[in-house]
Specification:
Deoxyuridine 5'-Triphosphate Nucleotidohydrolase, Chain A, about 150 residues, about 5% helix, globular, 1 helix, mainly beta, hydrolase
Length: about 150
């Protein structure tokens, strides 16, 4: 099934590429940093990085904003609220909460691929409050219950 994702560039991002899939099998399309020149993020610091795009999703869809694995592995750069969710009724610019978990300052340049966006269908269930839940073999055993 194919859907339409409408993308509008902000006035200051007309020179940046539209989000793009970098391979035939890529689940996420890359997003680009819409910074003026460069932004340096020191270890432990957080910066809000604009992408220069606004999107319109069909109803019952969301965009998940995720870190790029190469930036995380090589520089310690990731997103604080990952995955970030863009709801179908949001029309503002997508901005990224970027943190440097590495040991060295990292410079983000204008037009650099900084995150990826994955589009997913959303199911909104009917919510029913109950007194009991069905039993399972696992029940409430959580964190590490199958071993580490």
């Amino acid at each position: 099934m194919s859907i339409v994702l409408k993308i509008k560039r902000t006035e200051d991002a007309k020179d940046l590429p539209l989000p793009a899939y970098m391979s035939e099998g890529a689940a996420g399309m890359d997003l680009y940093a819409n910074v003026k020149g460069e932004v340096t993020i020191n270890p432990g610091e957080v910066e809000l990085i604009p992408t220069g795009i606004q999107i319109e999703l069909p109803p019952n869809y969301e965009a998940q904003i995720r870190p790029r694995s190469g930036l995380a592995l090589n520089y310690g750069i990731t997103l604080l609220n990952t995955p970030g969710t863009v709801d179908s009724d949001y029309r503002g610019e997508i901005k990224l909460i970027v943190i440097n978990l590495g040991k060295q300052p990292v410079t983000i340049k204008r037009g650099q691929r900084i995150a990826q966006m994955v589009i997913n269908q959303v199911v909104r269930p009917k919510i029913i409050e109950v007194e009991e839940l069905s039993e399972t073999e696992r029940m409430d055993r959580g964190f590490g219950h199958t071993g580490v």
